Amino acid sequence: MTIDNIANLRYHHFMANWDTYKQKLLKDPEFKKIYDESSPEFEIARAIIRGRIKNKITQKELAKRMNTTQSVISRVEQARTSPFDIVFEKVSGSAEYLTSC
User: Could you tell me the residue range of the domain that residue 20 belongs to?
Assistant: First the structure.
């Protein structure tokens, strides 16, 4: 079993029905546009899952290395939070710190 297969197992039960439903939704131009724009976020989520599995680390361990919380990693992996939002938050926090010096 490859790391890609293990990462996909997380979504297996959902994916069988989703593939059929997604094809119907993609016929709607507005949905297709939003779906296409979110593709990088899903790829990042899958890459994080693959990386954690490959390196045998937990969400909690990854969060500690990234100076964030386990719940943030969970939300990113489930695509409930954009990884770009997390980066923006970190940069914003740093900018506020730098301007207050």
Answer: 3-99
